[in-house]
Design goal:
Largest sheet: none
Oligomer: single chain
Structural class: mainly alpha
GO biological process, one term: proteolysis
Distance between the termini: 60 Å
Order of helices and strands: HHHHHHHHHHHH
Subcellular location: Cell membrane
Number of strands: 0
GO cellular component, one term: plasma membrane
Helix content: 55-70%
Membrane topology: Multi-pass membrane protein
Protein name: Membrane protein
Number of domains: 1
Radius of gyration: 19 Å
Length: 266
């Protein structure tokens, strides 16, 4: 009885995550209806809350896949409750990604939950655990872009449409960055089980600096241009224009004042 109760509690959705979902729903409604006096504030809260939800789901996907692959310790660590405060790297998983969204509109990959890899047998399982997180971002991006590629935007208010476009941009950038085969990112975690022991030992010391290396490259204008050209191409294939993502980011940065160009959009 005690064990069953404990296991059930380990998988119960946390009030913290439920609160974030509630903020997403309320601010999404305010963005849709125009209820807020300052639309930018509603968009900011809606996109930020929805982004944190996606980060929680990203980490949950890692943990849930690990659970079914043999690591039963993830439950006791609180990873299955979707509580962002339970993650091993709360700073990397939540705080820094939100800061980067505010500063540059980039979906920063979060820090992974701690998986006891020794409990897991089979290279495919290890690869799937690493891939589960960014695949969640891909799924989230498809949900955000569905109204665009399904031509279901009739009656959708501009502010909400722009907010969805910007949120989709964040999900696509997060998925693309996470899938890079760079030590410390999930893309490397996918291929790592297939590398020789010697190569893994040589690469291991560079894992803490992989993300910093990627963002240092993105500071280079040539690399940044190519990266966002790829992002724009993906979003356009999903029915989202540069104009919509631009206006979504402008609305999100409400402290900069209203953009007349976006306000005049049909």
């Amino acid at each position: 009885m005690t064990t069953a109760t404990t296991r059930h509690s380990e998988r119960r959705i946390s009030p913290v995550f439920a609160g974030i979902l509630a903020v997403t729903a309320v601010t999404g409604w305010a963005t849709w209806t125009g209820f807020a006096e300052q639309p930018g504030v509603a968009v900011f809260l809606f996109v930020t809350a929805a982004w944190i939800v996606s980060l929680c789901l990203h980490e949950y996907a890692h943990a849930r896949t690990a659970l079914h692959s043999g690591d039963i310790s993830v439950g006791a660590k609180g990873y299955l409750t979707l509580n962002p405060l339970k993650y091993t790297h709360a700073l990397l998983s939540i705080v820094l990604p939100v800061i980067f969204v505010i500063m540059g509109g980039i979906g920063l990959p979060g820090g992974a939950v701690f998986i006891e890899r020794g409990r897991i047998r089979g290279r495919w399982k290890h690869s799937l655990i690493s891939a589960a997180g960014p695949l969640t971002n891909v799924l989230f991006a498809l949900v955000c872009t569905a109204p665009f590629w399904l031509d279901a935007l009739d009656g959708v208010p501009n502010d909400f449409r722009f907010a969805l476009a910007f949120l989709a941009l964040l999900q696509v950038t997060a998925a693309l960055l996470n899938f890079l085969p760079v030590p410390g990112l999930d893309g490397y975690g996918v291929i790592e089980p297939w590398l020789s022991y010697g190569i893994r030992r040589q690469v291991e010391p560079f894992a803490p600096f992989g993300l910093l290396f990627v963002f240092a490259l993105l500071w280079l204008p040539a690399v940044n241009g190519v990266f966002f050209d790829v992002i724009d191409t993906i979003l356009k294939s999903l029915g989202i224009s540069d104009f919509e993502t631009y206006c979504g980011q402008e609305l999100y940065r409400f402290w900069q004042g209203s953009n007349e160009f976006c306000s005049a959009a049909p």
